[in-house]
Amino acid sequence: MVLVLSMHDEDLYAERALRAGARGYVMKREASRSVILAIRRMREGKIAVSERVAESLAARFVTGAPVSEESAGHAAQRSRAGGVPPDRRRTRHA
Fold first, then answer.
1. 18 is in which domain, residue-wise?
2. Residues 6 or more apart whose Cβ sits within 8 Å of residue 28
3. Could you list the mean pLDDT of each consecutive 10-residue stretch along the chain, which spans 94 residues?
């Protein structure tokens, strides 16, 4: 049983984790109570994800919308930059 605690709240990361076999995906910034509830749900054989991620994944499922190219691109850039969104990276000026 795998529970992913992530700093990423993008659907792409949650979807990848769940497809890879994780039974839960919770944001690190959520209260510790959310982690405990996720573990309890997983022990009951249920999948546990953060509320925002669950809503977004459900909306995509209902509409049949794929992960947008922009979202996938930002996720890849963020991964390469150590988790920092492209618009929040600090750059050094000479």
1. 3-81
2. 5, 6, 7
3. 87 90 91 92 95 86 70 52 53 52
